[in-house]
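Anyone up for a design puzzle?
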């Protein structure tokens, strides 16, 4: 009976937020005809300068470090696994996949924006001449077919905690690749990753707004959902990453190590995202909570310190892993 009651409350909250969805779509997403498209950022095959521009892309790609380029490939595969993310969001309780308005329109419009990311990065990597595209495509197919386990079930509260965190993490990763690419003189790739990062920042703001709206009307249950997700740990969407001949998930640690070595995304970033969310939602000063929710709030406020102490003991391997994404 308790589960049914909680489910009804969540449905009511989802319906409450859905009432203002038209305004949220306009605030956090862009219309296709007004948005950037992958073709805007890549050489146009109709132009006489096409082969010259491709040659420049290939020359600059050679200047990037092995680990940084591996992270770029891994980020691309993560973006390309979009069908999994859309299916997951459409299955959240309170979202009617058959509707053409409200929450389902949000998911479709968000998906449409995200779809440009994988398209753009995939085309860039193809033109770079540095990637075994078949191996990249195989990893992408594996990642889509293997799916993921975010441990959110169909709960919108837990799901929006995840997206609030993950979209922020994705923004950091693309933004850092942009900055590091610019240092090597690769201004085109810097711009590519920069515009993707900007999208991710908008999306992160949207999901964080959804969470804030839930905190406003159902603070105790939202707090418990936040605690639950942080106890489980926010896993990256590519945590089942693998390549030809590998086992499910066995490649993610190597990808993560490369991201740590290049400082694209680190354990400290994970902690910093948590800190920013605690501040954004003003968790420390949250009142009108149930007893269990107060304990959850205290747990969350103490968590960054605990994670920092744990992170100090983590050792990142110095030797790079040889990904099949490179070479012939």
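Challenge accepted. My sequence:
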């Amino acid at each position: 009976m308790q589960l049914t009651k909680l489910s009804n409350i969540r449905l009511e909250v989802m319906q409450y937020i859905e009432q203002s969805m038209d305004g949220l779509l306009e605030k956090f997403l862009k219309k296709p005809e007004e948005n950037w498209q992958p073709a805007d950022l890549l050489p146009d095959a109709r132009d006489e300068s096409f082969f010259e521009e491709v040659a420049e892309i290939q020359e600059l790609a050679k200047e990037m470090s092995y680990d940084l380029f591996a992270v770029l490939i891994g980020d691309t595969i993560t973006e390309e696994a979009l069908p999994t993310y859309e299916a997951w969001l459409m299955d959240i309780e309170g979202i009617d996949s058959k509707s053409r308005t409200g929450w389902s329109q949000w998911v479709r419009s968000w998906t449409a924006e995200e779809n440009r990311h994988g398209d753009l990065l995939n085309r860039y990597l193809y033109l770079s001449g540095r990637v075994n595209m078949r191996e990249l495509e195989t990893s992408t197919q594996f990642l889509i077919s293997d799916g993921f386990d975010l441990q959110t079930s169909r709960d919108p509260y837990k799901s929006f905690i995840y997206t609030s965190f993950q979209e922020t993490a994705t923004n950091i990763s693309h933004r850092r690749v942009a900055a590091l690419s610019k240092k090597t003189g690769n201004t085109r790739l810097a711009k590519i990753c920069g515009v993707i990062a900007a999208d991710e920042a908008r999306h992160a703001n949207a999901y964080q707004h959804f969470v804030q709206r839930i905190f406003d009307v159902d603070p105790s249950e939202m707090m418990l959902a936040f605690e639950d997700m942080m106890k489980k740990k926010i896993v990256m969407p590519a945590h089942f990453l693998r390549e030809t001949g590998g086992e499910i998930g066995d490649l993610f640690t190597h990808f993560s190590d490369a991201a740590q070595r290049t400082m694209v995304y680190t354990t400290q970033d994970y902690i910093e995202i948590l800190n920013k969310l605690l501040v954004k939602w003003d968790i420390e000063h949250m009142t009108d909570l149930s007893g269990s929710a107060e304990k959850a709030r205290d747990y969350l406020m103490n968590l960054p310190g605990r994670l920092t102490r744990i992170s100090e003991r983590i050792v990142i391997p110095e030797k790079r892993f040889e990904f099949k994404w490179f070479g012939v």
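A detail worth pointing out: The mean pLDDT is 95.
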